[in-house]
Amino acid sequence: MFAHKFESLYDLFVHELKDLYDAEHQLLEQIPQIKDAVSSGTLRTLVEEMRLATERQKGLIEDIFRTLDVTAQRTTCPAMKGILNEAGEMLKAKGDPATGDAAVIASINRVQHYEIAGFGTLRAFAERLGYSEIAGTLGRCLDVGYFIDQAATALAEYDINAESAEPAAMS
What we know:
Number of helices: 6
Oligomer: single chain
Strand content: under 5%
Radius of gyration: 18 Å
Order of helices and strands: HHHHHH
Largest sheet: none
Distance between the termini: 46 Å
Shape: elongated
Helix content: over 70%
Low-confidence stretches: none
Mean pLDDT: 91
């Protein structure tokens, strides 16, 4: 049940900021398991880049809370919880390591698409509310989401998926 009450776009903006703050925390908690599960060194490096980016984004959200003079707190993000639960199930799967890495990349893409939607929405809200500096910060977070998503997709398309699809892996 959705029990929130929003009297203004500002109220919704702060709520969504808390939601995304929680999403970043959840992701940071899961990244070590993701990193441990991959077999590709290149993918492991990408997961580490994602961890560093997520740490930076979490810090930038904290900066936004300070700018707004709002206590940095989390509102449970059920969407990220679901995405990460699914990713956790993928990490437990047995079989070909390259195919497992392809599953991890699919999960990374889902996470990044959620973050892209969240940061993009928050940036639009910030612009409408006249918070141009905050909008710029959120735009930088959005750019990082695009970068990680595109890097994961390129790794999948030009390396991991091809390795996973080799005949030996199909037996």
